[in-house]
User: What shape does this take?
Amino acid sequence: MDQLIIAGKAYSSRLLVGTGKYKDFTETRMAIEASGAQIITVAIRRTNIGQHANEPSLLEAVPPSQYTLLPNTAGCYTVEDAVRTLRLARELLDGHSLVKLEVLGDPETLFPNMVETIKAAEILVKEDFQVMVYTSDDPIIARQLEEIGCVAVMPLASLIGSGMGILNPWNLQIIIDNAKIPVLVDAGVGTASDAAIAMELGCDGVLMNTAIAAAQNPVLMATAMRKAVEAGREAYLAGRMAKKLYSASPSSPVNGVIASTGIQATGGKG
Assistant: This one.
């Protein structure tokens, strides 16, 4: 069975989903179930997982016994905030070590600050966190993060929440071709075809939130995303045909075809 392996654990689903922007926890749960996702990312600074005792907890809708929770540092702009947030998450989740690191550069673009991200990754890896890291699509940065000890790199397809899809497939391809750890597209996916393209390129998985939560029918979109990721992975494994510029090739054999003159054709000039 073709499984996604992250930090030594196998997952049958290559679609990772978030929990933000839904109208309530019920819709969140329904969309997650429809997506088939097993790894669920949670913004610790924005979602209650027990730090607010008198408020509804996401853990009631997405229990850790059924899903692998992936605490993330959404909303963090400094090394200190990111590291503090994930230390809190580990405490709240009984020593949970698999985390998603993101250190943002500005609130308008939400583009990652890679200088701060690298510093935070170094600290977290030394503290035995298993770090999946949100990054720019710079192949050199991706290699540095792998060398630090991150368990997965997660380059953006386009800006968080933009729905613009994959804007630079060439950089993604370079990262994929050179990485020895999983590469997952994170941010910018807008619809099912974007997810399929990411998987056809050879990405190990896709993480998304807004593309599902902001759809007119989130549960139906979650189903579409599940199918797209599966189809894209299968197409990648199958190996697409070569592209032939300015050259056509008939789908059916030409040898043995009866020509209009009644003479058997050979496929070439007589």
Observations:
- The first strand starts at residue 4 and ends at 6.
- The radius of gyration is 22 Å.
